Amino acid sequence: MERAELTTEQVLKRDIPWETYMTTKLISGTGLQLLRRYDNRGESVRAQLLDDDGPAYVQVFVSILRDILKEETVEYVLALIDEMLTAYPKQARLFHDKSLASEDTYEPFLS
């Protein structure tokens, strides 16, 4: 199967080494905790996490897209975002949260 044919479901079956990224300082300890809470959880759990602390999750996702270049990880985070926005389109508002005003949340999507 060619990479272009991978589905979101297939991409999300990957095991991403989040701890390695924290060890190499590509994600923070807080970012690692958020990812552990969110990753491999059911839709209802993820929805509750986004309701509780959505901007923090968006910030982690955007920082990964900005700072990590490994294709498999980028695809994985894009799949998480795709799944989030497909299930709950109103979550797009999280990218406009005032707590993220100092960040360009769209820049990583343009590269």
From TrEMBL:
Q: Name one GO molecular function term.
A: proton-transporting ATPase activity, rotational mechanism
User: According to its record, what are the GO cellular component terms?
Assistant: vacuolar proton-transporting V-type ATPase, V1 domain
Q: Where is the signal peptide?
A: none
Q: Tell me the InterPro entries matching this sequence.
A: ARM-like, ARM-type_fold, ATPase_V1-cplx_hsu
Annotated protein name in UniProt? V-type proton ATPase subunit H
Q: What is the lineage of its organism?
A: Eukaryota, Viridiplantae, Streptophyta, Embryophyta, Tracheophyta
